[in-house]
Amino acid sequence: MFRSVRHMIYDLIEWRSQILSGTLPQDELKELKKKVTAKIDYGNRILDLDLVVRDEDGNILDPEQTSTISLFRAHEIASKQVEERLQEEKSQKQNIDINRQAKFAATPSFALFVNLKNVVCKIGEDAEVLMSLYDPLESKFISENYLVRWSSCGLPKDIDRLHNLRAVFTDLGSKDLKREKISFVCQIVRVGRMELRDNNTRKLTSGLRRPFGVAGNSVP
């Protein structure tokens, strides 16, 4: 609703500038005023505001100088025009949805390419970086994890893969593309001591996996 109203306001601002410029011929000016009033009436309707009745030139009718029958007929005409606009918008949206579904159905699968450049996170020990796709509305992961083992020195454990940490999430079908939201989630698991502050060699442990951090971003 906010996006729709914002778009209409932008249109009205642009049209107002054209009207105030005084450069439009009379016939174009008349048509533009009709577009403005139609847009205002349509916006009032979707916001559940009162319908304003107007004459053929778009001027608001004065109830003190207009008969009740004329006001009623003008109200009927305005209501009909707004209803036609609503039906037109609904039909266009349905056509867009149908075309989008047909396009998705015609494409068997998709893929998401990921290139890991660096892990800017002070961990202090070795870590595992897991990346996956997540549906926040269904609260579940929709892909397997891409695992990168990161050393305490701030480099990949497999140094031969430096600057070559790439993965492809494959077999993303039309069902996945129709999801309302998909997030790319990165989890960091610390591998080492029970506590980072544990310097007692007698209690020192190693190889324990502990959650360290998580980050996420919406997939466009």
From TrEMBL:
For this record, the Gene Ontology CC terms, alphabetical, are: cytoplasm; plasma membrane
Q: What are the coiled-coil residue ranges?
A: 72-99
Give the signal peptide as a residue range, or say none if absent. Answer: none
Would the keyword Coiled coil turn up in this protein's UniProt record?
yes
Pfam families the record matches: DOCK_N (PF16172)
Instruction: Tell me which InterPro entries the record gives.
Output: DOCK, DOCK_N, DOCK_N_sub1
Q: What's the protein name?
A: DOCK1 protein
Q: Which organism is it from?
A: Pterocles burchelli
Give the gene that encodes this protein: Dock1_5
